[in-house]
Structure formats: structure tokens, C-alpha cells
Amino acid sequence: MGIKDLPLTNGQTIAKVFEALGWVHRRTEKNHFVLTHANHPGIHISIPDHKEVDRYLLRTEIRKAGLTIKQFCDQYDA
Q1: In Å, what is the CA distance from 32 to each residue of 45, 68, 70?
Q2: How many other C-beta atoms can be found within 10 angstroms of the C-beta atom of residue 56?
Q3: Side-chain half-sphere of 58: how many Cα atoms within 13 Å?
Q4: Which stretch of DSSP H or E encloses residue 15?
Q5: CB atoms within 10 A of CB 39
Q6: CATH domain 3-77 topology
Q7: How distant is the alpha carbon of residue 78 from its chain centre?
Q8: What is the CA radius of gyration of the chain?
Q9: How many CA within 13 A on the CB side of residue 10?
Q10: Which tens digits make up the pLDDT trace of 15-58?
Q11: Could you give the CA distance from residue 40 to residue 19 in angstroms, rounded to a whole number?
């Protein structure tokens, strides 16, 4: 799977996918969703609350979370 397989969707939907994968929405900084995970205490995922989140930014956050694009897309489609 490549970057073209990532969805072009809004930040709120992406944050919900990360929440389904075990990440917890801790706080919102202006127009970003900030998520943390108990197993990864030093990592914070920051998703902008935009109508369309850039695929390259999404890929970076997926990698930071220790996930693959396939894992993310499978949860997105579920």
C-alpha cells in the first residue's frame, strides 16, 4: 500500500480512527486533535482539524504511531 491509498478526509474522522486503534484524545490545541497512547508515553499524534488533511502529514503521523498504512486503512474502512 502506498500514500495514494490513504483517505482524503477531515481531521475529526482521522482522530476517530486513531481512537479506535487505542489512541486517546487528550486535548485540543486551537485547531488540532492531540492524541496519546499508554504504550507510547513519549509520542503525541497531532491531527489538524481541517476539512481535508494532507496525505503526507497523515503518513507521518501513522509512522509516528508505529502503524502501517494498511493497518490504518483497514480500521478506516471498518
Answers
A1: 10, 22, 24
A2: 9
A3: 28
A4: helix 11-20
A5: 8
A6: Metal Transport, Frataxin; Chain A (3.30.920)
A7: 15
A8: 11
A9: 6
A10: 999 999 999 987 776 789 999 998 888 899 999 999 999 999 99
A11: 14
Spatial distance between the Cα atoms of 14 and 57, rounded to a whole number of angstroms? 12
- Distance between CA atoms of residues 60 and 37, nearest Å: 16
Give the separation between CA 44 and CA 29, rounded to whole angstroms: 12
Domain map of the chain by residue range? 3-77
What is the SS3 assignment for 35? strand
- Cα angle 2, 31, 68 (rounded to 5 degrees) comes to 20
The pTM (predicted TM-score) of the whole model is: 0.90
The cell numbers describing 45, all together, are: 499524534
Residue 71 has what pLDDT? 94
E-only strand ranges, 1-78:
24-29, 32-37, 40-48
Give yes or no for a contact between 34 and 61, defined as CB atoms under 8 angstroms apart: no
